[in-house]
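User: Structure with coenzyme A, tokens only please.
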Amino acid sequence: MKTHLPRAAPSRGARAQAAASPLRPPARTRIQAPPDAGTGEAFLARDGRPLRLRRIVPGDADALRRAFARMTPEQIRLRVFHVLNELPEPVARFLCNVDPDKVAAFVVTDDDGGEIRGEARVHFDHVTESAEFAIAIDPAFTGNGVGWSLMTRLIETSRAHGMRAIWGHVLAENSAMLDLASRLGFSREAVSGEPGLLRVHLALAPTR
Ligand SMILES: CC(C)(COP(=O)(O)OP(=O)(O)OC[C@H]1O[C@@H](n2cnc3c(N)ncnc32)[C@H](O)[C@@H]1OP(=O)(O)O)[C@@H](O)C(=O)NCCC(=O)NCCS
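Assistant:
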């Protein structure tokens, strides 16, 4: 079972609303001034579009909901392993308010900070000293190195946080994620009792 996003446990009302809504931006959403316009590290997508990478902040909740609404149903299935029509507002707020001892979450935004083009997070397990990742990229920005940039940042951050490994569950048909993980050095293995699910894993050398 995929963690992080669905386990945010939306209220019953929010679940009913999510089930009833088609995949579209939340109604009555007003696009407000971006919370962190111009902040974060600037980089260029492979196709030349200017982007920025920074940590997620509480003010990202509306932009995260809009980003979720732009994902295809297939992308959502690959990310959360089930059907989810929209990101309920309480879940978006939960995802943007991270406890830094437990979670590190990053977004890639447009250069002006207006829209989120990729989001990725790791959940630190201090008992096993390993970090579980999850990632999703705007479908209009895939194949442009955004996933690579975010995964690289998750690896660096997990290492700096004292984690000895980073891992994630990936559906076996998710060739894009498996390819990206394998280029980053992850190994993969079957998950016992979960046909169709793979676990990708990368051991992390400690920082000196
Ligand atoms: C899987 C997913 C995260 C990939 O993101 P992406 O932004 O398209 O990935 P990238 O563009 O960074 O990587 C794609 C390619 O560039 C390569 N690449 C990118 N930057 C690179 C770099 N600096 N150096 C070397 N290779 C690089 C990747 O290895 C890959 O190879 P390809 O050219 O053969 O396609 C994205 O498709 C997605 O959001 N899928 C839906 C959600 C999902 O599946 N999540 C995973 C489960 S949690």
